[in-house]
């Protein structure tokens, strides 16, 4: 998402409620991801990926969700909705295997040109990890076709496969 928004000339900060695992150190720009929100910045919008339950952001907000204006939030996820999410836009599709598939679909509708080789690689990484390298039961033909399209758009599948499957210890693979 960061790469896409930067292509659209947006200023972007990336946050996660827990530190990123070291197994993702090889991912370009993984070092820009922060674990504490900067409350001195006035954001135009907040986009939450893979965060269906609004309460999950409390790790970022330190239980000050009230600091987020409800008309400025977008949630994109593939998990079942547990409770109503207080935001303007929710794009939640539980029948799809990963949030990266949803991002791919959004980009295909909005502007396919935004799917650069780097973006394709990021989306392919998310698709590969969320599908267990395409072995989970929820995978289907559409999932495989999205992966094929991402590779055809320049996703570096060899880089992803090398770092996510071939160079990890057994315990790190179990983490995935």
Characterise the protein shown here:
The chain is α/β, with parallel strands linked by helices and 176 residues long. It has a single domain (2-168), classed as inorganic pyrophosphatase (n-terminal core) (Alpha-Beta Complex). 36% of the residues lie in helices and 10% in strands. It has helices at residues 2-7, 58-61, 99-110, 117-130, 141-152, 157-166, 170-175; strands spanning 14-15, 33-34, 46-49, 73-77, 89-92. The strands form 2 sheets. The protein has a 3-stranded parallel β-sheet. A two-stranded parallel sheet has the order 1-2. Strand 3 (46-49), helix 2 and strand 4 (73-77) form a beta-alpha-beta unit. Helix 4 (117-130) packs antiparallel against helix 5 (141-152). It is globular, with a radius of gyration of 16 Å. It starts with a helix and ends with a helix. The mean pLDDT is 80.
Strand line-up across the major sheet: 3-4-5
Number of helices, where a helix is a run of at least 4 consecutive DSSP H or I residues: 7
Biggest β-sheet strands, sense, barrel:
3 strands, parallel
Termini separation (Å)? 21 Å
Structural class based on helices, strands and sheet pairing: alpha/beta
Q: Label the CATH architecture.
A: Alpha-Beta Complex
CATH topology: inorganic pyrophosphatase (n-terminal core)
Mean pLDDT across all residues, rounded?
Answer: 80
What is the overall shape? globular
Quick summary of this structure?
With 176 residues, this protein is α/β, with parallel strands linked by helices. It has seven helices and five strands. It has helices spanning 2-7, 58-61, 99-110, 117-130, 141-152, 157-166, 170-175, and strands at 14-15, 33-34, 46-49, 73-77, 89-92.
């Amino acid at each position: 998402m960061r790469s896409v928004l930067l292509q659209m000339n947006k200023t972007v900060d990336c946050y996660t409620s827990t530190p990123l695992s070291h197994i993702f150190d090889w991912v370009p720009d993984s070092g820009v991801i922060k674990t504490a929100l900067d409350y001195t910045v006035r954001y135009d919008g907040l986009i939450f990926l893979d965060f269906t339950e609004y309460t999950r952001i409390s790790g970022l907000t330190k239980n000050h969700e009230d600091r987020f204006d409800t008309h400025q939030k977008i949630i994109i996820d593939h998990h079942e909705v547990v409770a109503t999410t207080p935001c303007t836009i929710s794009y939640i599709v539980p029948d799809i295997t990963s949030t990266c598939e949803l991002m791919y679909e959004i980009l295909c509708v909005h502007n396919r040109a935004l799917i650069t080789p780097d973006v394709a690689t990021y989306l392919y990484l998310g698709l590969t990890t969320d599908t267990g390298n395409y072995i989970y039961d929820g995978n289907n033909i559409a999932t495989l076709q999205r992966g094929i399209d991402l590779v055809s758009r320049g996703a570096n599948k060899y880089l992803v496969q090398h770092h996510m499957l071939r160079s990890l210890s057994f315990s790190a693979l179990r983490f995935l």
